[in-house]
Amino acid sequence: MGNLCTCFSPKTPLKTKKPTKRLQGNPQTAPNSSNRWTRIRSTRKEFKDNHDELIREQALAAAIMFRQHQQQNGSASGSFPFDRSVSLRYPNGSGSKKTQLPRSSSSRARSLTDPLLQPHQLVNQDIKLDDLETNHFVLVHGGGFGAWCWYKTIALLEEGGFKVTAVDLTGSGIHSSDTNGITSLSQYVKPLTDFLDKLADGDKTILVGHDFGGACISYAMELFPHKVSKAIFVAAAMLTNGQSTLDMFSQKAGSSDLMQQAQLFVYANGNNHPPTAINLDKSLFRDLLFNQSPGKDVALASVSIRPIPFAPVLEKLSLSELKYGTVRRFYIQTPEDNAIPITLQESMINSSPPEKVFHLKGADHSPFFSKPQALHKLLVEISKIPST
């Protein structure tokens, strides 16, 4: 505040004046005083706007989690059944005017790669959602994360008219299971496979997997290829047949020394048995996962991330060309990623080339925080790619 006062102080001493009333009318009678007061008011207004924006975003995240708990407890206001492990949301009705969405990223100056756009600006107005093969996105979080990490993406997609389901995998988010008791990939992915199994015949989805969620959607694609229109891997493990997530990291040993430093193994069954879970050192959170993300989202993650079950990371996938191979795949690269470095992402892409690769400039390992608008734009763009 001292710097602010110094900035606006007069350069020459002021002459002593008699007390006067505040000037009314033409501001030209006291230009220096008026300009100074205008600048101070402008600065205060910017501070207030940033403060209000932070409160709105915190309220948005809290509202999403409150809505989940409200539906879980059978609130009378809920209009559809709630599965504890799945957060299902439907687009707003078209009959009422939609409320404009507040900024969902940082209060920092926004880069050209993540411009401040309203959701309706990101959707081609010439494209009707009913003309798409599907407008239903299913978002699958990475290891340790939960459905909560997609709160910005959920809001943007729903505002654009899309249907969105964000899944909490077993032992993640608000799912009640103990992570140390998860012994297989099928057990870990069960909330996702149960959801796809209950979809009506003919209903299709766009699966979006982040981080370890890439291996999870691959597992689901093998089981339900007829219910998956497209699969989008976002800074994710995109494995080949017979490969595990651990194999993927091992093939580029040393590519992420920071990841190795951050891993804290949990031995719930005793030190003489294999690890049951992996914790991440919270002192390395920002550098590893959120090096380009807003501080408020790092704070949200620090109180929300749970241990990663170890057994599913070891499990090798069984993927066939007749099932998994029939699903159209797309990859979104994150060049500022310290968890799955760009060299490792390129290695996976070269081993199993997807239909198309997108480059999300300036994104860290968590683009739903660091580049939410740009990520949303790519998701919508991929949804509109027609069948070849």
From TrEMBL:
GO terms for molecular function: methyl indole-3-acetate esterase activity; methyl jasmonate esterase activity; methyl salicylate esterase activity. GO terms for biological process: jasmonic acid metabolic process; salicylic acid metabolic process. InterPro entries: AB_hydrolase_1, AB_hydrolase_fold, MES/HNL. This is AB hydrolase-1 domain-containing protein. Residues 23-37, 93-102 have a biased composition (Polar residues). Gene3D superfamilies: alpha/beta hydrolase (3.40.50.1820). Residues 1-40, 89-115 are annotated as: Disordered. Residues 137-375 form the AB hydrolase-1 domain. PANTHER family: METHYLESTERASE 11, CHLOROPLASTIC-RELATED, METHYLESTERASE FAMILY MEMBER. Keywords: Hydrolase. It comes from Salix viminalis.
